[in-house]
């Protein structure tokens, strides 16, 4: 029994940490959580920030309806439970990205404060940046790029945030950006300046 | 109505693609899917590859029980449906990582061929690398680092892969690595050589 068999080879665990990956990438793994009404400009702002980060040689990734609702969360509907599970999974995935050292950006209405606060608890202090992309409801309705507000007003879409379902404004967002006041470049620069000031990029 | 209001500002979409991110990172976004019996060495091999990739300046991330079962998939059990959903979500998340340009590595038993093949369909041709981490069952049982095989033999764990639940061997794995024949460094180098030969790193 003292013979060392090939089957008993010591298999050690790799020891690459989040910190190692951040050093390699020259940035910090963070979650930037954009929240706000439909048509507030969350996804557009996130992609504008992504573009600027890329110019700066930084790696980010935008999680939004396009890549989440048709994939990971395609088995979820719009019931309250499913909406909660939708945001829960997005929070968990964004944590994995941040753990990789990537700048994860999520662009979802995420109307419930408790859901957003839950996502915040998953990330180390200072690494969760909640950005309230704020517009007056009237402005969002006027933009209405997909005609959703019109349908909601007509009762064709039920439980539509801002019309027939609540939107709970953030109480402690790291940034509040009013996209009816700032254009996309100005909004983007607010985010980039914040990341720079916090030594995250 | 011809007046351009601030609320009608043209919000353009950022246009950073997977290809851009791959160029930035100097690597290709791929999914490396390790499959095999419990105690075959999947996670250890994945972490050894991660370590080597890091030395080479490449960014990878290992999805395994440690970061998935306690987070994204903590609301899943071990029923057949939940096992399928477990692997489905892992597949979808690994695709997001690959889309970021990161080398995503998954280390799960993933005993069903159909589940693994489903994950493969999510990734572009040539970007899904299935690695069968193969050991004789007797070797896995002898290793049994967590005493799971012992419990399974005693009937304390039900539906344990290889004992009381099936393991469907891959039919078309990109690599088959027998960890009862190769040690961890040799196994790791097989993977690294493959990635190099395919111009993925």
What does this structure look like?
Two copies of one chain form a homodimer. Chain A has 201 residues and is of the alpha/beta class. Chain A has eight helices and five strands, in the order H-E-H-E-H-H-E-H-E-H-H-E-H. Chain A has helices spanning 18-25, 42-55, 65-72, 80-100, 113-121, 137-143, 148-153, 184-197, and strands spanning 30-35, 60-64, 103-107, 128-134, 175-178. In chain A, strands 2-3-1-4-5 form a five-stranded parallel sheet, sandwiched between helices. The longest helix of chain A is centred in the middle third of the chain and has 21 residues, at 80-100. At the A-B interface, helix 1, helix 2, strand 2, helix 3 and helix 4 of A face helix 1, helix 2, strand 2, helix 3 and helix 4 of B.
Helix/strand layout:
The structure is a homodimer of 201-residue chains.
Chain A: H1 18-25, E1 30-35, H2 42-55, E2 60-64, H3 65-72, H4 80-100, E3 103-107, H5 113-121, E4 128-134, H6 137-143, H7 148-153, E5 175-178, H8 184-197
Parallel strand pairs in A: 1-3, 1-4, 2-3, 4-5
